[in-house]
Amino acid sequence: LDPQMRIACNYLLILFVVFSVTGCVGFNGLVRKTGPKYETELQSWQKAITSKGGNGMWLVSRGYRVGDDLVSILTASPLSHVGILDADRGEVIESLWNGNVTNSIVNFVGMSHRVVLVKPEGWTPETGNEALAKARSKLGKKYDFVGLIGLPSSSRWYCSELASWCWGRPPDRKGPWHVIHPRRLSRMGTVLFDSGSRNGEPDDLDSLP
Predict the structure, then answer these.
(1) Model confidence over 164-186: pLDDT tens digits?
(2) Is the per-residue pLDDT at 22 higher than 50?
């Protein structure tokens, strides 16, 4: 294992033992729901994102990956991950355990139990393009495992660290109190769409603001 990952995993394992015996909202989304009715629901999410989203906006999610489960359970949170939207290309830039990568909106949504589209404070088409360009400049960088416990690296990134840095937040402030949780990003701007938990019922896009 990557030394950074080993340190973070040991730390997270201790927390997992504590939280797993208490139960919390973080367990919502452990089981991936699939099938035709869910595919129709996901298509409604994709339509909302493509119709209301802009470059540099955030897609805050509760995902189905192991990392998502750990974040949600250990922090008792309904949200676990965030990506930076590239509306022009239909892509999302995200930090995963294998590094900073691009993903299609379709695949990002498909791996999500819930998605929240957030317009960061100060967003305009121009500032959104600038934030997106910053995110693209970090593609290929490795994951910041120990950043999750407040020991950030200047050359590695975790998902919400990358997303918030694109909008002006310093990425290398040490201390667990400086770790930025994905759910905080949902409050650092305007929510344009919140899918709610995956339940097989397409969202009513006509009711969106």
Answers:
(1) 999 999 888 899 899 999 999 99
(2) no
Q: Quick check: 189 pLDDT over 90?
A: yes
Q: pTM for this structure? A: 0.86
Helix (H, G, I), strand (E, B), or coil: what is residue 126?
helix
Q: Which residue is associated with the tokens 């999410």?
A: 45
Q: How crowded is residue 206: how many other Cβ atoms within 10 Å of its Cβ?
A: 5
Q: How far apart are CA 1 and CA 131, in angstroms?
A: 32
Q: How many CA atoms lie within 13 A of 96 on its CB side?
A: 13
Half-sphere exposure of 178 toward its Cβ, with a 13 Å CA cutoff?
14
Q: Give the span between the Cα atoms of 181 and 115, in whole angstroms.
A: 15
Q: Is the pLDDT of residue 15 over 70?
A: no
In the three-class reduction of DSSP (H, G, I as helix; E, B as strand; rest coil), residue 113 is classed as: strand
DSSP 3-71: HHHHHHHHHHHHHHHHHHTT--GGGTT-SPP-SHHHHHHHHHHHHHHHHH--TT-EEEEEESSHHHHHH
d(CA 116, CA 167): 18
**Per-residue pLDDT, 10:** 66
